Amino acid sequence: MKSPTTILKLPGVRPTYIPIGYVAPGLVDACYTMDFLLLSTLQCFYTDSDCMNQLFYYMNRTSSANDSNLYAHSLIYNQTSTRFPPNTSVSSIVEEMMIEKWNISLSFPDYYEACAPTYCTYTRIKQAETFSELLVTLISTIGGLVMALRLITFQFVKIIFGLFQKKPKKQQQQQQVRRKLLDRFKMLLSKLITLLSVEMLNLNIFPARTFGSKINRITVKHLGQWSTRLYFILLSIIFVILTLYTAIQPQTLTKSFSTPSLNFYKNLMNRHSDELECPCSLISSPYNEYLQIQPIFHQICSSDLISNEWRLNITASLISNLSAYNQRDYRLFLSSHLQFLNGLSQLSMQT
Questions:
Q1: Which residues pair with 4 in a beta bridge?
Q2: In the prediction, which pLDDT does 162 show?
Q3: Membrane-crossing residues (predicted)?
């Protein structure tokens, strides 16, 4: 069971069991010295506590002369710079390795040099145009093609007729022959156009057996022709729909850059932070090449309160036979208390 640790009044140099002189805050009695330290707090060593003054007072009363080395700087509590209040147990501080916080220093240029990416890629989804924009684009494209074809065909016809007009006309007979040839060509072209028109109208890709044997041949022929026309109409509509779907569908664009420099990487990161991927050339790299971690320890670790010199000076006036002190007298544990604190601090800073 824990009980408060005290400092008893001592008449002269020999301790006696007389009323308590002072109850030390934060210090508790335990069966073992280590338990006494871990269960206690450092509240006695802070400036807002009169524990240090009382300790100096009773130490000076048992000392033959005042010694300036008896005094050490008390701990100062600042809630903005420490996460351990004065009433925090030593065991809680030790569990955190007596570390207040970690100062982490990261050098990104060093990290990028250690990473050394061989390439960087980013994938971007090209947004499709709206239907109105696509319609305007198609109309403008078709309109432009119509105008271009009209100009080209018009100029082409002028050039062809110009070539025929520039040739010399020596004889009337030759002109008549040429006219006959031209008339024949026109007639042939007219027949060809008529033939193509008739073939297109009479085109039938469905055989007669498709409609069965109960229908006469004339009806089968007409049904086949109309079926063929409907087939090509539907095929054209599907082709147009697929063309529009392909035009509207978003496209995925992937770009790759080989061995990018740090500045180029930063530019890519600013523009494509979410899509950018730059895998390192090495699977792993040592942290010490670009990362530095500096721990900041509890102020008790660097305080002169746990120094060997101060401990020897403040305990020099104690009776060598410590068993003469009462079990609850802090002076019985003072030396071991300070030694354990010193050892824990050194262990934390060297780990």
A1: 28
A2: 45
A3: 134-164, 185-206, 226-248
- Greater model confidence, 102 or 284: 102
> Would strands 291-297 and 99-106 be described as parallel, antiparallel, or unpaired?
antiparallel
CB 17, CB 65: distance < 8 Å: no
φ, ψ of residue 7 to 5 degrees: the values are: -120, 120
C-beta atoms surrounding 38 within 10 Å: 19
Contact in structure between 20 and 6 (CB atoms under 8 Å): yes
Could you tell me what percent of the chain has a pLDDT over 90?
18
The closest of 42, 2, 12, 13 to 341, measured between CA atoms, is: 42
pLDDT of res. 17: 44
* 228: pLDDT strictly greater than 90: no
What is the C-alpha separation between 264 and 278, in angstroms, rounded? Answer: 12
Largest CA distance in the chain: 160
pLDDT category at 18 given cuts 50, 70, 90 is very low
Of the candidates 4, 3, 6, 2, the residue with the CA atom closest to the CA atom of residue 55: 6
For the chain, the structural domain boundaries read 3-106+293-350, 114-125+259-288
| pLDDT band for position 297 (cuts 50, 70, 90) | very high
Q: Which of 2, 7, 1, 4 is nearest to 334 (CA)?
A: 7
Residue 55 has pLDDT above 80, yes or no: no
- 213: which residues sit within 8 A by CB, 6+ positions away? none
What is 43-75 written as a DSSP string?
GGGBTTSSHHHHHHHHHHHTSSS--GGG--PPB
Give me the helix-helix angle, 217-248 and 131-166, nearest 10°.
110
Measured CA to CA, the distance from residue 126 to residue 194 in angstroms comes to: 48
